[in-house]
Design goal:
Blueprint lengths: L1 E3 L7 H14 L11 E3 L9 H6 L4 E6 L4 E9 L3 E10 L8 E10 L3 E6 L5
Parallel strand pairs: 1-2
Antiparallel strand pairs: 3-4, 3-7, 4-5, 5-6
């Protein structure tokens, strides 16, 4: 199985073209094989850093290795870490009720089990 992704999206024609290219380099007489080329699923976890770059400004879900799950907007990413802006209820001094506030959370890639794009139907 070969998965492809692109910042501007992947079309069926892209998958067909890549499949034909790969098959042109393989020889069925030497080895029997099954080749499947498809786009990275929209609800699937990110596999490469470029997917983080592509989804800056999008809502994502993060599951840490410690089991903490959160959703927020992917604010920035680099080769070592990424930042997600989440909304948290914070009780300010003297306030009767907690107020919803935005807070940035930074994660190293080795601290998480997965990050994936959240589909929104708003």
């Amino acid at each position: 199985m070969v998965e492809i992704d692109h910042a501007e999206g992947v079309w069926i024609e892209d998958c067909v073209e890549l499949s034909r290219f790969i098959e042109s380099k393989l020889n069925r007489e030497e080895e029997d094989y099954e080749l499947e080329v498809g786009s990275a699923g929209i609800g699937q976890p990110f596999k490469v850093v470029q997917q983080y770059y592509n989804h800056i400004g999008s809502e994502v879900e993060v599951l840490t290795k410690s089991g903490k799950k959160l959703a927020g907007v992917l604010k920035e990413a680099d080769e070592e870490k990424f930042v997600v802006t989440v909304q948290k209820k914070v009780k300010l001094d003297g306030a009767k009720r907690p107020k919803l506030m935005e807070e940035d959370e930074t994660f190293r890639y080795d601290e998480i089990k997965y990050t994936k794009y959240l589909i929104s139907f708003k």
